[in-house]
Write a structure and sequence with these properties.
single chain; 7 helices; 71% helix; elongated
């Protein structure tokens, strides 16, 4: 067993040590962080897919959307590449520009 080879009494002790080395107070805190990251990944994928789909359906491009939202094209690109999530104000502008009925990212995922 890997944990015992590394000098730990149990696999749980090994997990706790790894979590602490990553800067977490406990393995439980590390697991909570992972769950949050997975949720964010689902949100960003859903948002990215929605933007690409609606732009294609509308015959529009990222520059048009950026202008509609009053942001740079680079910001829209960040949303599409799943590198950023818009704040509530920008999310609302995004949904209005793309003519979708969603109010929040949670609506998008349902």
């Amino acid at each position: 067993d890997l944990a015992k080879k590394k000098g730990f009494a149990s696999y749980g002790a090994y997990q706790e040590d790894l979590a602490k080395k990553k800067g977490f107070a406990s393995y439980g805190a590390y697991q909570e962080d992972l769950v949050g990251r997975r949720q964010q990944q689902a949100e960003t994928k859903g948002l990215s897919d929605l933007i690409k789909k609606r732009l294609k359906e509308m015959g529009k491009n990222q520059s048009w959307l950026a202008e509609e939202m009053d942001v740079s094209r680079q910001v829209v690109s960040l949303y599409i590449r799943r590198k950023a999530i818009p704040n509530r104000v920008l999310l609302r502008k995004l949904f209005v520009a793309l003519n979708v009925n969603h109010q929040t990212l949670d609506d998008l995922l349902e």
